[in-house]
Amino acid sequence: MNHFSPLRSSLELLQAAARERRAVAALNFYNAETLRAHVEAARAEGAPLILQTTESTIRYLGLPMIVAMARAAALELATPVALHLDHGSSLALAYGAILAGYSSVMIDGSALSFDENCELTRKVVELAHPAGVSVEAELGHVGQAARDDAAACYTQPDAAARFVERTRVDALAVAIGTAHGFYRGEVRLDFERLDAIRAAVPHTPLVLHGGSGVPAELVDRAIAGGIAKLNIGTEIKDTFTEHVRDALSGSDDIDLRRTFSPAIGAVRDLSRRKMRLCARLAS
How far apart are CA 83 and CA 173, in angstroms? Predict the structure, then answer.
């Protein structure tokens, strides 16, 4: 990683959060408007910020533009900012993000066998650590909210200990009942499993994917149980799209800056709520 970059390793942010029994909001951005919303939220809350992009956003914006935008955002804030690859699907993508200037990458081998996941993750760690880039991996599988068999993919505590030992990964995404997308029915998290995972890997920050739509009281319990990073994506897209749709349906104004303004404000407010929740300040 470029040592002159204003971006910080996410491990640094997560270790500080774990010491203080709080978490860091990891917020996906998709365009300049959602990025602006997150920056305004972090400034208002005085909170650290992990900016995330998925592979689809990389295809949309391109790695050079994403890195330039994130670095510009970091220069605006007094609090630390990391740029994280969310759900990287391959060694090539992770390496490309490292070379481009990301300060943190996730390699998602959760659909592979245990040994294959270990091998892929270890290779990414070997590329990332010399560049000062932190690595997140997933064990178990956080699937889609519409699935009924999610419990079959939950993280096993003993496997987590073996995985961390073999890969030397910096952060571990765990499957304890959350899912990507909109939830169907009541959200239930396996806190006994989380406690067991925390005991098995006491020095590795834990990550909760599928944070959108999880009730605040469950998020708070998860953070108290060792979650140091809370991922939010679906709520951001939904909030932004809803407010753009409303703005377009209620006006003939063609000035995009005014059209996007309500959506930016709504995502900023959402991001602030997530940051306060991660700081365990939610009302």
Answer: 17
Model pLDDT for residues 87-120, shown as the tens digit of each residue? 999 999 999 999 999 999 999 999 999 999 999 9
Could you give the residue numbers annotated as active site?
A: 86
- Going by C-alpha positions, the residue among 281, 274, 262 that lies closest to residue 213 is 274
What is the dihedral sign for C-alpha 113, 118, 123, 127? Answer: positive
The token duo for 139 is: 């064990």
CA distance 148 to 33: 35
Question: What sign does the CA torsion over 107, 111, 112, 115 have?
Answer: positive
pTM (global) more than 0.85:
yes
> What's the alpha-carbon Rg for the chain, to the nearest Å?
18
- Residue 166: CA count within 13 A, CB half-sphere: 17
